[in-house]
Amino acid sequence: MSEQHSHHDGHGHAPWRLDPGGVGLLVVDMQNGYVHPHGDIGRRGQGAPLQAVVPAVGRLIDLAHAAGIDAYLSRQEHLPDDATRRHRRLESHHHGAGRSHSPCLRGTWDAQIEASLADRILPSDYVFTKHRASTFYDTSLESMLRMRAINLLIVCGVTTNYCVDSSVRDAYARDMEVVLVGNACAALDRDLHEATLRNTALLHGRVVTLEELAVALRRDV
Questions:
Q1: Which residue ranges form the domains of the chain, and what is each CATH number?
Q2: 51, 126, 137, 193: which could form a disulfide with 160 (CB 3.0–4.6 Å)?
Q3: Is 216 exposed, middle or buried (0-12, 13-18, 19+ CB in 10 A)?
Q4: Are 78 and 84 within 8 A, CB to CB?
Q5: What's the confidence (pLDDT) of residue 220?
Q6: Which of 133, 116, 120 is nearest to 28 (CA)?
Q7: What residues pair up with 178 in beta bridges, in sequence order?
Q8: Are strands 177-186 and 152-158 parallel, antiparallel or unpaired?
Q9: In the sheet that 23-28 helps form, which strands lie side by side, from edge to edge?
Q10: Residue in 45, 43, 50, 48 with CA at minimum distance from that of residue 76
C-alpha cells in the first residue's frame, strides 16, 4: 500500500494517500437477484439494505475509473441441478427460513449485474463467474490479478458478512492488501455488517468510507 504524507489535516495527522498503481476494485455480486427490488431477495421483502447500497457502489466504480483503476465484477451463478446440494444432510443457507430455491440461477435475469452498474463497465474491466461465496474459489480472478500485477484490492458489494468477507479473507491469504469500503457494501443483518467491518479492520485490511477513499485518491465523489 503506497502512502504519501505531503500535508496534514486539521487534527495534525497526515492524511492517508493511495497510489492507484497496482490497485484493483473488486465488486462482489451486485446482481439483480440480490440488489434489485424485483430480484429474488427483493420479492421476499428482505432486500432494502442491499438495494440502498447500489448508488454508493456506482459512485465507487466511477471514482475508481477516474483514478485509472479497473473494476473486477463477480457474478454469482447457482445451478438448479447442482448435485453438490442435492445430497446435503444439513439445510443450506439457500433453503432456510422458508426458502425453496437459490437466488441468481444461471441464465436468469436475477443473475445479471444490476443495470446502472452494468452500464458503467468499461472494456478494461473484468466480469467473471463464481459458484461459491469467495470470488477466489475456482474462478479466474486470481490469475487475472497476477497478470495485471494487482497487489491491493478495494472491495465493495454484497453481502458484507458472507461473500464479501470470504473474498477479503481469501485475498489476505494470498498476500494481497485489502481496503474495504464500509458504506459501499451491505448485509441483510446490520449487526453482522458492522461485525465484519470491525473484524476486517482488526485482521485483514483497512476499512474506509467512500468519502475517505476519494480523499486518499485525490478525487471527488
A1: 23-82+100-216 (3.40.50.850)
A2: 193
A3: buried
A4: no
A5: 83
A6: 133
A7: 153
A8: parallel
A9: 126-130, 71-76, 23-28, 152-158, 177-186, 206-208
A10: 50
